[in-house]
Write a structure and sequence with these properties.
One of its GO terms (cellular component) is cytosol. With 339 residues, this protein is an alpha/beta fold. Helices cover 35% and strands 18% of the residues.
């Protein structure tokens, strides 16, 4: 395990005990948690993106703000739903945020998950072409994004421009070199992981996966990672790919931890249906550090991935979530090979 970061779903509500009751709370606290995570030595600050929900929906202002307040930590998404995105505007926004952050963006994108509204992307002005599915719409937008991130000119310049142009066709600006290699795809199936490798994107695997064999979740996820890496080698890309997985892990080190998580984590995987797909949901972990270490050593996907994203209960506030991260980084992560 080379890198450990956090993944925040960015919820806010006025439920009792919530320290994030408004969108402003979540945005400000997300920045503060990223700053705290960097000070603790964590490697990444990642944020979930959902539309039409009381969650983080517009990632680039947040990513730019985090980039301006930090200097080392990776800043990413997990994931941006490409059904909703104008890939040209996304290239400009991502390029600006990445330059502000000093080339630290790690953008997770995907087809997205079930949404709060029916066909929400249509409200953003997008719809599948005739005979095209919404998943294919997301991949079409992604193909455009990846092509534009190469930084090659494609637009015919005006012969009488307002400002002087460089010679040749023009590209979108500001351009951020290297961002193309820091695009990740959130894959739920083995076939999608293979496709991800063929496109030259890094693999982002979450806390659920299509149940393709009936094996334990962590075993299926490890097999997905191997399928991705094998496809990457066959594609002949000239760089090493990255793989991230997400886990809910809580080290119980004090009475407040016991109050929140003293009942322990889930002892087994869960099976459910999502988007008409039979899915296996990975277990959560909550125990004393020495017991956690033994449990996590049995997780084959943790051993196979290079990046672990810890999902955090963001509504419990910045201080408590910083404590959650510190407990893992100090008491658990070194035994898993981190640093």
């Amino acid at each position: 395990m080379k890198k450990i970061g956090f993944l925040s779903f960015g919820h806010w509500s006025d439920a009792p005990g919530s320290q994030a009751t408004t969108g402003a709370d979540v945005l400000q606290q997300s920045i503060e948690l990223a700053v705290a995570a960097e000070e603790l030595g964590a490697d990444g600050a990642y944020f979930r993106v959902h539309h039409f929900a009381r969650q983080l929906g517009s990632p680039f202002p947040l990513l730019a703000a985090v980039g301006a307040r930090t200097s080392r930590i990776e800043i990413g998404t997990g994931v941006i739903d490409m059904r909703y995105e104008n890939p040209l505007a996304m290239v400009e926004n991502a390029g600006a945020a990445d330059l502000i952050a000093g080339s630290r963006l790690q953008l997770g994108i995907s087809r997205g998950s079930p949404e709060q509204v029916i066909d929400g992307w249509r409200h953003f002005g997008y719809a599948p072409a005739e005979g095209e599915t919404d998943a294919e719409l997301a991949r079409r937008h992604t193909a455009i994004l990846l092509e534009l991130l190469k930084g090659e000119g494609f637009a015919e310049p005006n012969p009488r421009p307002m400002f002087p142009n460089p010679p040749g066709l023009l590209r979108l600006e500001p351009y951020s070199p290297g961002l193309r290699d820091r695009i990740w795809w959130g894959a739920a199936s083995d076939a999608t992981a293979v496709w991800t490798a063929e496109q030259g994107m890094n693999l982002m695997s979450s806390t659920l996966k299509q149940d393709e064999s009936g094996k334990p979740f962590h075993v299926q996820q490890a097999e997905q990672i191997e399928a991705f890496r094998q496809a990457w080698r066959q594609a002949g890309h000239d760089r090493e790919p990255r793989v991230s997985i997400s886990r809910s892990i809580f080290a119980i080190t004090d009475d407040l931890d016991r109050a929140y998580f003293g009942g322990g984590g889930e002892e087994r995987d869960q099976i459910g249906n999502i988007d008409n797909m039979r899915a296996v949901f990975g277990r959560s972990y909550a125990d004393e550090p020495d017991k956690l270490i033994e449990q996590l050593r049995q997780d084959e996907a943790i051993a196979a991935a290079d990046t672990l994203l810890l999902t955090v209960p963001n509504q419990l506030g910045v201080d408590y979530n910083a404590h959650v991260l510190e407990a893992i980084l100090e008491h658990v992560a070194p035994a898993l090979g981190w640093r």
